[in-house]
Model the fold of this input.
Amino acid sequence: MTVKKGRPRRKDTARRLFETEESTLSPASLPVKTLAVREAVVLAGEQAADQRQEIADRREDTADQRQEAADLREEVANLREKAGRAKAELSARAEAQLREANEQLVIATVHAQTMTEAAEQATAQMAYMAEHDFLTGLPNRSLLTDRLEQSIALAQRHGTMLALIYLDLDHFKHINDSLGHDVGDQLLQSVANRLQSCVRLSDTVSRQGGDEFVVLLPEVKDVRDATFTAEKLLKAIAKPHPVAGHRLHVSLSIGISLYPDDGKTVEMMVRNADIAMYHAKKNGRNNYQVFTQEMNVRAIKRHAVEQVLHHALEQQKFVLHYQPKVNLETGVITGAEALVRWRRSDHRLAYPAQFVSIAEECGLIVPIGKWVLREACRQAHAWLKDGLYLGQIAVNVSAVELHGKDYLVGVCDILGDTGLNPHHLELELTESGLMQDTQQTTEVLHALKGLGVQIAIDDFGTGYSSLSYLRSFPIDVLKIDQSFVQAIGGDTDDGGDAIVGAVIAMGMSLKQRVVAEGIETRQQLAFLKTHHCAEGQGYFFGRPMPAEKFAAFLARNRH
Amino acid sequence: MNKSSTTNSELSQEAIRKALAHHAGSVPDASAVAEATISIWHQVVVRLAPVIGAHGVDVLFRRSLYLASAAFPWFVTAEDPGDSAALFASIKTRLEGRDTDVAIEASYTLLVTFTELLTTMIGESLTERLLGPVWVAPSKIPEQETVL
Done:
């Protein structure tokens, strides 16, 4: 387009040439024919020139068109290049996005797998925990019941026998209380391991809770298979257990029941093995007992006593008798020990030895003990109000009560309700009762002492304890067990005199009152007085008597 | 799992074992096995990272390690070893500390576990296309492909 404008035309050039010739050759100087030729030539020349010019113009147009085409191609090429770059960029971006999406998908999938596994593990863990004991990992009561049911069904089908061994650690509570729960737990784990090592893989060792375990032997030929295993267990557990730097010694009480002889259901087998185990305990512990029907009779009787005790508590069938405590030097009554009696339906009185252990086992000792304390405090306050002199009213407290919840609060409530001055109350505790959970015991005793209540150790010298508690507990009174007093002056050289003498001396040096129990003879009294024992009680001074009689006794001894 | 997939899986496992033997040499010790393992892992990363991303490969690897630790508990430690490089270094050290036979089996288990895990996500065909070259010709993967 721009090129076309600036280029000179060839036709014009030719014309300018002829015009020049015309100016040189004047027509007047040439003949007519020549002129005609000349005109024709000129015309032809002009035509040729025109044609040439036309061709030249066409060439020029073609060149222009080619240029235009080239320009177009260039533009197209540029556009294609741009499009290619854009496509490559787009492709790279898409690839990156795809890779990122894949990456996220992989990560999400793996996370989903991990989460699924965690959920499955949690479910499996919950199922495991529902059937196993947390501390030892042994099957728990639920799983044992399941396996026992299956074993009974199989034994029934095949006409075979199976054995259930119920076992309990002897005096485990002492270890737990004196060395702490952590040591106790480790001991239970050690016991669990040993029990498992004594039985076959097809047998089941389970923990029922606390220090009770049950072993299921699904394949026994006769009772000897079970007793053989029981002996093995006794021996294995008796070996020292190295726990937390201690070498702990424990023993087992074992009860055995057999299918089908001793029970045909899970409940019967467990119950009868438990009854047999109870008899092993009663039989001195560290032994096994095979269930017999006679045991069941006794167990039924025991159960009947429980029921009657419940009834007695509801119907207020308990009464208190009071035995005087006397100043051995002056003969003055210094106090009384309240002793519970149970008035049976036939109106005969039952003594504590006949029902306290059952009451302790079934938990009734707590409400019974509370009733005794309340009644003793009420009666003592009444006597004091009537002007009768009574130093202290002594009430026995069982270990179960002392370590029960809110014991201290219960004592405070009773003192508040009855109005008895705490200084007139003396609580008698046994050594074994004191030694359980010593930390809590110390706190409770100090709180009682703070109230003004006197603390006495009953049956001193017969329990399982350490003398160090005499320093750590706030003890006011030591009561020498009657077995030592009754040995005074005896024929046998069993050291009774020496023990009594030593206890009196120790009590005096620790500034504790010493009370001798079970004084029955003048000789015993003389010995005790010689050794400066301050107080005593026993049939020599007076038997336990009902409240009315004791009031009269007090009145007679009023000074 | 059908018969053909079992066969493919077995072929793949055999290929992995051969690749490991190829990298570790004819009479390997635990160090050689550790070196071979890390070398193969780098090639796996090269092949897979362009498709599922470096982070994706890393997550799959850690998952495989966890699964393989059921048979070889020493594969995992209580503390997190850190990024991929630190993790590979840690694995290498742990393999080196084992008996040769144990190291071979552990490495083989880890690679098989990884392959099976990948297969569950993208299928056998794609897994074979992506990782086949690692097992077949471990040393012929072009260097430029390492650039993401």
Observations:
- Chain B touches chain A through eleven residues (CB under 8 Å).
